[in-house]
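User: Tripartite-type tricarboxylate transporter, receptor component TctC. Structure?
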Amino acid sequence: MFKMIRRTLVISAITLSAQAMATLSNPAFADYPDKPIEVIVGYSAGGGTDVLARVVGKYLEQALGDDASVVVKNQPGAGGQIGFTSVAAARADGHTLGTFNLPAAMALTYDRQAAYDVDSFDYLANVVHDPNTLVVSQNSPYHSLKALIQAAKEKPGSLGMALSALGGNDHFSALLLAAAADTEFNLIPFNGASMARTALLGGHVAAGTMALSQTIGFEDELRVLAVLDDERSSFAPEVPTAKEQGYDVEMGSYRGFVAPHGLPEDIRSRLEAAFRALADNKALHDELAAQGNTLDIVVGDDYRELAESQSDIAAQLWENHPWK
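Assistant: Predicted structure:
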């Protein structure tokens, strides 16, 4: 009896020792991070996503502690696809992260061949939610969303609607609003939000849809008719939501951080905890607010669910309104 117990204890000790040695010899479980964490941004330096990555990066360093270092690497091109692909293909050791833009990142998997899908990433945290708006110029005859919709209904397809591009939150906002109102707009894509805004202010289009942050600073030139969110924004508390005005439409830009799928559990947990801690960081909140961005921390499985829902919206719109 005692021999059997002793033999069991010896075997258990050997097993635990082997497991411990395997853990120590696995680089993924070494002290993390043991080198700079690289954040891949699929857009050019100076753009909104790049600025977000650099701002959040310095607070992420503080949250991780242990002299953590976060560096940004820009890989622009193909509407962000190059950067998203690089993240998906990177080693899942926690030293390569990437910014992730919804719904744009998932829309790219429907309108072209993409080397990633919704299952290619570990979803760490969404950081910013920037709801879309429906806007006109201050010189416009339309003073309400109802008046704009009525004009579109009178001549379906004739009312020009400026978009920053096809296959993103602006485009999807216009499609969802048209469906909710049972009408059509003449969708006119531009090369970026600034060009769409310029066309709108120049009177070349009747209306536009753009993220709320892209209207900040243009209050004397733009009239925001609706915010496409579930509640009014603190940045424009006087502007009603589309839902308040009878059109159940929500769409916006979500920007967060992902890693290649398959992070070791302890590293993923540490990163999630660091991002979760940012939710109460007043300095980060204030710095983002100065840019017109709302801090909206959504971590782990909840973030994955958000990505899946945005992917579903993109798939449905692609099926009914293919844009290429």
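The mean pLDDT is 91. The two ends are 75 Å apart (CA to CA).
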